[in-house]
Amino acid sequence: MRTHLAKTRNIxxxxxxxxxxxxxxERILFRTGATYKQGEVHDGTTVTxxxxxxxxxxITIFAAAVSCTWDGHRINLIDTPGHVDFSAEVERSLRVxxxxxxxxxxxxxxxxxxxxxxxxxxxxxxxxxxxxxxLDRACADLDAAVGSIRTRLHxxxxxxxxxxxxEEQFTGVVDLVTRRxxxxxxxAMTEIEVPDAxxxxxxxxxxxxxxxGLHTGALEEFVADDGLEDTTLRAALRELTISGAxxxxxxxxxxxxxxxxxxxxxxxxYLPSPxxxxxxxxxxxxxxxxxxxxxxxxVHAATTGRLTYVRVYSGTxxxxxxxxxxxxxxxxxxxxxxxxxxxxxxxxDDASAGDIVAVVGVKHxxxxxxxxxxxxxxxxxxxxxxxPVVSVAVEARAAADTDRLSVAxxxxxxxxxxLVVRGDPETGQTVLSGLGELHLxxxxxxLRRSGVPVTVGRxxxxxxxxxxxxxxGLLYRHVKQDxxxxxxxxxxxxxxxxxxxxxxxxxxxxxRVPKEYVKAVEAGCRDALAEGPLGGHPVTGVHVTLVDxxxxxxxxxxxxxxxxxxxxxxxxLRQSGMAVLEPVAEVTVTAPDDAAGAxxxxxxxxxxxxxxxxxxxxxxxxxxxxPLAELFGYATRLRSRTQGRGTFTTRPAGYQPAxxxxx
Length: 663
Ligand SMILES: Nc1nc2c(ncn2[C@@H]2O[C@H](COP(=O)(O)OP(=O)(O)OP(=O)(O)O)[C@@H](O)[C@H]2O)c(=O)[nH]1
Ligand SMILES: [Mg+2]
Hints:
Elements: H1 2-6, E1 8-14, H2 21-31, H3 52-57, E2 64-70, E3 73-79, H4 87-94, E4 99-105, H5 112-123, E5 128-133, H6 142-153, E6 156-159, E7 161-164, E8 172-175, E9 180-184, E10 189-192, H7 197-214, H8 216-225, H9 230-243, E11 246-251, H10 260-270, E12 293-302, E13 305-314, E14 316-318, E15 322-325, E16 330-333, E17 336-341, E18 344-348, E19 350-352, E20 356-360, E21 370-372, E22 390-396, H11 402-415, E23 420-423, E24 430-434, H12 437-449, E25 454-456, E26 460-461, E27 464-469, E28 471-480, E29 487-497, E30 502-506, H13 515-528, E31 539-540, E32 542-550, H14 558-575, E33 577-592, H15 596-605, E34 609-616, E35 619-627, H16 634-641, E36 647-657
Helix pairs in contact: 7-8, 13-14
Guanosine-5'-triphosphate binds near residues 81 and 137.
């Protein structure tokens, strides 16, 4: 079983929108023989962009898991979306990956969203190799892209290939580790003689120096022998990749089928197997004979039934087994286990530690749930979920369709837990919230496609309230003593602004408020954060200190202190200086330089604050902080202002004080 694990790679393909992740995935499936036909994003024929909207829009929306084999290794691959609105989908995938290929556009180099996913992968400790794609494009420049990896991602690039030819003439690569050269014509890879041995030696030397600078063992050999053996170099590159001290860089053109085989070799050679990463749970080894535990990271409501994607962390799960969802206490039966192999599924009898599979039969377990052997329960850590910032009201066009709409909404949220549905008690409407305009547009379109005619309101952003000037010594007496068991809780609190969303402390002395009541006050304060005094928006940036309190021998209880905490903070917030905050995004616009004035003027009209602006020949790149509320419809506007030549990307940049008109 250990050989099975050592020969498994669970990897993700991560990048900025349009860098070529899906195309790279498609070529990997083709080259490994998992598919016989090669699909294209622009024809809507790729394996991993299988959703109707993905095919129509030419973008990836849902992470797709597929499996293939290369050089005796099983590779489980997750193609992730690049658009920022779907970053929660990337986050959920990162949780179950052991390694990743970061794809970069050979012309643009590191783009804003590549920076964001790079940080996300840092947080999850996922080792990466880099693939600089699109070297066939005009103005593609490997060295410039490598430079941007160094400066923008703050990591040492370890370039292991030298391209042969450039742009249209980019035909192959020289492998600096094996000192062999390969070219590709339309289909096949051919080994050729190294075209420029002097340049190979020079580049190899640069690579050896970079590796020796990061790896002690390699440094000793480098100093003693004035160079590195191939085996030392390869071993050091693997260790540096797994520790994250450096990043191996490869290059190619996925679209033109160039560089895929060496990329697969690098995945096998440098990225970790499930045995190389620390166990996710201290008491559960990643072995097949331990009790079963796995994490649900994706749910797909396929027409043939619900597919629940599970990463197995320990033990073995067999067809027909009963598993426990630790979070809900519910048991479910696994009727089938599948390897999703591109367009076909392979049925498995069982799956064990280290594997990524889809199971059929599990109907209720949600994304993030731990499934485990009923007699050996445990809970695997959940990932934090991004908070929705944009909402729309949705309503069934015909009253008779209201129930169908609820069912369709429930299904949407099941597949995508970053969508939130709630009823607005004031208007009686159903409000759908998500991470961005495109996120909601896609969700609404899915509702329509499921056959429920809906009307949709204008998108709204989610505001927050924060404390700018606090109050001290607020005394709140919660007392109800009218027969029976009463309620008695006195609390004295200070409230101050905070950089954290919520901080709670206690300076109560002499046990005047027992510990469990202090906890209850904290819980009550959290309850109070749900609605601020200005507009009922959630409250953030509050520091509450419980200074003193009073209990009653008979009538004090945890519920009484919780209520007192909630009402005390509500009152304190009414007396504090408060401000409304609005969500803002960092927007990066790339446009022809003759449109620079129009772009800047439009950003200013949208209350944008320009933070950075650079020009490349013929092109201007502007970065600005813009309130999210002003960004609705920006895509259409930018297109018209630049005759379709401008593009932009956004990423969340927190909250800032909103103008008075909003509050
Ligand atoms: N010239 C060139 N175009 C490429 C290459 N790889 C991908 N493309 C094109 O770039 C566009 C985007 O490719 P995708 O594979 O959809 O990119 P992606 O990273 O999956 O995009 P999202 O999933 O939407 O973030 C498509 O039109 C591809 O045909 C390449 O190597 N060279
Ligand atoms: Mg894609």
